Amino acid sequence: MLGLPLALFCYLPAAYFCYGALVLRPDFPDDRMRDDARLMAGISVGLCFVGLLLTALPLFHRTLGRWWYAGPFLLATLAFLRWQTV
Fold first, then answer.
1. Using an 8 Å Cβ cutoff, are 19 and 44 in contact?
2. 18 against 3, higher pLDDT
3. What one-character DSSP code corresponds to residue 2?
4. Distance, C-alpha 13 to centroid of its chain
5. What is the pLDDT of residues 10-54, one digit of tens each?
6. Which one, of 56, 53, 48, 50, lies nearest residue 18 by Cα?
7. Rounded to an integer, what distance in angstroms lies between the CA atom of residue 69 and that of residue 80?
8. Nearest 10 degrees: Cα torsion 73, 43, 49, 54
9. How far apart (Å, rounded) are the C-alpha atoms in residues 79 and 13?
10. Model-level pTM?
């Protein structure tokens, strides 16, 4: 039952921001869209980090399995790569 709020309030918004960062295709002279894509990727990484920290708490750690670490880690890795390559 603890996984539902964690997924709804941390991982779902992180996936939304990561998708937004991946969809934005900034043109060469448009620095504003590039900054928006970086900001969205940074927000996604931050939300994944908060979710991973919450998952590591003893209350969540006892009830959630280890696979709860895999999804946000991969999502944060994808967002971080987009953040660095925009």
1. no
2. 18
3. T
4. 7
5. 999 999 999 999 998 887 777 888 899 999 999 999 999 999 888
6. 48
7. 16
8. -120
9. 13
10. 0.88
What DSSP string describes 19-53? HHHHH----SS-HHHHHHHHHHHHHHHHHHHHHHH
Q: At which residue do the structure tokens 């944060």 appear?
A: 76
Q: Amino acid identity, residue 80?
A: F
Q: What is the DSSP letter of 82?
A: H
Say which residue the tokens 């999804």 belong to. Answer: 71
- By CB atoms closer than 10 A (0-12, 13-18, 19+), residue 73 is middle
* Identity of the amino acid at 32: R
